[in-house]
Amino acid sequence: MSVIQKIRDKYAVWIIVLICLAIVSFLLQDVFFGRTGMGQSNVVGKVNGVELTNTDYQRRIEFTTEQMRQRMPGQTFDEEAQQYFREEAWNAFLRENIMTEQYEALGITVTDAEVVDAFSANNPHPLVRQQFANRETGEFDPSVIQQVNQAAKQDPNMRAQLLQFDQAIVEYQQNLKYYSLINKGIYYPKWLAKQQQEDAAKVANIGYVQVPYSTIADSTIKPSDAELNKYIQDNKGMFEVPEGRKLEYVSFDVIPTSTDSAAALADIQKLKAEMDTTPDVAQFVKLNSEYNQYDGYVSRSAIQVPNKDSIIDLPKGATFGPYLDGNMLVYAKMIDRKTMADTVKLRQVLIFAQQGADSIAKKRADSVEAVIRGGGDIAAIATAISQDPNAKQTGGEVTLAPHTDMPAELAEVKTFAFDGTTGAVKTVKLPIGYAVVKIMEQKNVGPALKIAYLGKRVDASSASSNDMLTAANEFASANTNRDKFEKAIQQKGLNKKIAENIQPMDFVLPGLGSAREIVNWAYSAKKNDVSRVFSLEDRFVVAVLTSIREKGTAPLDEVRPTVEAEVRKQKKADQIIAKIGTPANLDAAAKATNQPVLTAEGLNFSSSYAPALNFEPRVIGAAFNKAWGPAKVSAPIQGQAGVFVIHVNNYTESGIGNLDYGQQSQAFEGAMQQLVQQQLFQSVLKKNSNVKDNRAEFFRSN
C-alpha cells in the first residue's frame, strides 16, 4: 500500500484535527516572528480577498509534514507524499477562510465558557478525550489536564500549544454548529413519501421494439466541427476543466550494458568468496548485501523469490546463485532449518512499571503468571487488568507470523511464541514493565528456513549514462519542432509516450516519477515547442508540448471522441425516429425497422434499470406516462442504446408494502445530511468562492 493511501485510510480524521490545530499556530508564529513582505511578489494565493503569503504557506506545509512524521514514525515521505502535503496545506487555508466567512455571516460563535466546558471531567469534548488520555490505560484522565496545565505555567511552548488546542476546539464547535443548522433545513415531506410509495407500488409489463444505434454504421455519420462545438456549448457543465497541459515525450532509459553486468558479477563473486569464509554470515550479509531481506526464519510456503524450488531444498551451509532478481544479482545461502509454526496465536497481560517501582510490577506479573498456570482464564484477566489499551476488545490476543516485524525489545516474546509449545506461559521483561504471555495455538507446524541473500545491484555505469545522454541530446538538437519530432520517432522506431492533464502544482508525473522541471517547462513553453533534455533519476527525456488548456470549457480537440459519440448518437436517433414515423402499433414499428417485438416485465418507476433493458431511464419513465399507458403505443423514445417504441400491456402490484414514514424520513434525511457533509464545501462553497492560486510561480525554480 502506498504512503498516500495509508495516510488517507488511517489518518483522515487526524488530518482534519491537524488542520484545526494549525490555524492559531500560524497566527502565533506571525506574532513571534513577523511576516515577510506583504507585496504581491510574496502572495501565493487568495480566497475572497484574503492573502496567503509564501512564508505562511511554507509553515503550513512544514506543520502538516511534521504532524504526519509524528503519526507515522520512521516513514520516509517521497515526492508524491510531499505533493499531497502541499495540497493539504493549501486546502486548509481555503477551508479556514471560506468557513470563517460562513460563520461570521451566520453569527456562529463559540464562547469562552463553551471552551472551558469542553474540559469538563463529566462530559469532555471528543478532542479533549483523545488528547488527554492516561498513557497506561488509554482512557480519558482529568488528572492529565491538571498536569499539563501545571507544566504550561513554566513552559511557553506548551502554553502556545494549549492555545492552539483551544482554537481547535473552537473550530470544531463552529463546524458542528454550522452543519447542525444546515441539517435542520433538510426535510422529507409526507407528500413526497406518499408519491414515492405510489411510484414503487406498481410495475409495468411492456412490449417494445428497439432499434439499436449500431444498425447504422458510424462511418455514415460525420458530424461537423460546428455541430460538435454546439454540443459542447449546450452542455458546458459536462466539460468544465481546470488549467492543464498535455505533452508527448520519448525516454532514453539508462540501462546497464553487458559490461556493467560483468562488473557487478565480478564484485558479487568477490563478496561471495568472503561470505564463504566468514563465521558470522548474517552480520556479513547485513553489512554488504544490497538485497532487502528478513533476518529470521520463514516458512517454506511464505518464501517468494526467483528459483524458489532450488533454494528451499539447499542443505545447510550450501549456496545457490548467482541469479537475477529484478536489477539484482543474488546468492542465496542456507543458514539454518528447523520445524516451527507459520502462525502463532497468543494472549498477553501487560503490566506497566511506574518509575522506581519495577519490583512491584514484577510481583504482580508473577502473581498473574501463577494464576494462569493454575488454570485462570487469561482472556478474562487481560480484559480486566491488562494495561494494553486494546485488551478490553481483544482479551489480549495477538497473532504472529515468523516474518512479523517487531521491535527489538519484544524479540523475546516472538522467540517464545515460536520456540515454545502450545499452552506454555512465560513472563517477559519489557522496557515499560512486564508481559505475561501464554501460547494459545500454533498453526501449520512445518519446515522453516533461515536464508541469507547476498545481493548486488546491476547499475548502469557513468559511461552507459553518458551514452544515453548523448543520444538524447542528439535527438533534441536535430528535432526542434513537432513535425521533426514525430517524423524522427517513426524513423527510429522510438516509443512515444503521453503525459496529459498536467496541473500547475504537479511534482510527480505518471510513468516519470518526480518531474517538476518538466512541469515548469510545460507551463512556460508554447504549443508545439520541443524541450531540452531533462535528466531524471534513471532516464533522459525529450518532450513536445501538444496542448495548452485554459481553465473553463474543454476545447474540442481534448474531448472530440466523447462529443463525436454523443452527436453521432443524436443524429442516428433522428434518422431512426424519422424512419419509424408515427406507428399505429408495435407491429407497424417492427415492420418499418425490421426489428422484432420484445417484452420486458417488472419495470418500476423508482428504478432506472430493468434486467431486459439495462439502464434505460427514459424508457422506464415512459411506461408510466398516463398519456400512453395501456391505451396506445408510445411515440419513438431516444434511449441509451437505441430508439424504442413501447406499449404497456398491463400494470400489476409490486408487492412492496406500505413503509413507515418515520423510517423513510430518517433514512432520507440521514442520507442527505451525509451527502451535504461530504460535498457542500467542495461542490458549493469552494466553487462559489473567488480563489486565486499562484503557487506554481513560487516553484518554478524547484
TrEMBL record:
Span of domain PpiC: 341-441
Keyword Zinc among UniProt keywords: no
Entry membrane topology: Single-pass type II membrane protein
Ranges annotated as spanning the membrane: 12-33
Subcellular location, principal: membrane
Keyword Transit peptide: no
InterPro entries: PPIase_dom_sf, PPIase_PpiC, PpiD_chaperone, Trigger_fact/SurA_dom_sf
Compartments in which it is found: Cell inner membrane
Keyword list, A-Z: Cell inner membrane, Cell membrane, Chaperone, Isomerase, Membrane, Rotamase, Transmembrane, Transmembrane helix
Family, as annotated: Belongs to the PpiD chaperone family.
Name assigned to this protein: Periplasmic chaperone PpiD
Species whose genome carries this gene: Chitinophaga caseinilytica
Lineage: Bacteria, Pseudomonadati, Bacteroidota, Chitinophagia, Chitinophagales
